[in-house]
Amino acid sequence: MTESLAAARTSTGELAEIAITGDLARPARLTVPALLAWPQHEAQVAFECATSGLQHHRFTGPLLHDVLTTAGPAFDPARRKDRLRFLIAVYGADGHHALLSWPEIDPDFGRAPVLLGVTLDGTPLDRVGPQLVLPQDRCGARHVSGVGAIRVDGGYPATGATR
Q1: What span, in angstroms and rounded, lies between the C-alpha atoms of 3 and 116?
Q2: CB–CB of 122/58 below 8 Å?
Q3: In whole angstroms, what is the distance from residue 144 CA to residue 134 CA?
């Protein structure tokens, strides 16, 4: 976390991009400034980090659900439960990754206020990329820094068939 903040303060060069891919009608490549077009939310988080103990941070950014909904996930909107089979894989620039389920972030189900953080303690993350922020997590393991890719995967059949 502190390495990411230091990099955000000192980094020069091009803006980091995030690729949003998978079972989507409108895959996209977004930068932190592009993510500022969505309504911004704030999250005060406290979580335990395995290497540096208890962390307290303030993030701002759009809800992950809003960003992914705009990309048009390929579930059938007429079948409410169809979205239950969708997974979201988030990859960080450092190789760290996390997995979420669509129902976890969907307002009709878990409604978790998961953010794509574009600022960390007031510092813009333009150069290092957004951070996946899960305010509800006690452990910081799913807080992915420098998000470079998000993949939405609905390849889990609703019929109960196995692969």
Answers
A1: 18
A2: yes
A3: 9
Among 145, 149, 144, 126, CA closest to 10? 126
CB 135 within 8 A of CB 65: no
Distance CA 131, CA 93 (A): 10
Q: Is the pLDDT reported for residue 148 higher than 90?
A: yes
pLDDT mean across residues, the chain: 88
Q: Minimal CA–CA distance to 22: which of 78, 67, 71?
A: 71
In tens, the pLDDT along 89-102 reads 999 998 999 999 99
pLDDT grade, residue 27 (50/70/90)? Answer: very high
Buried b / exposed e along 85-115 (16+ C-beta atoms within 10 A): bbbbebbbbeebbbebbbbbbbeeebebbbb
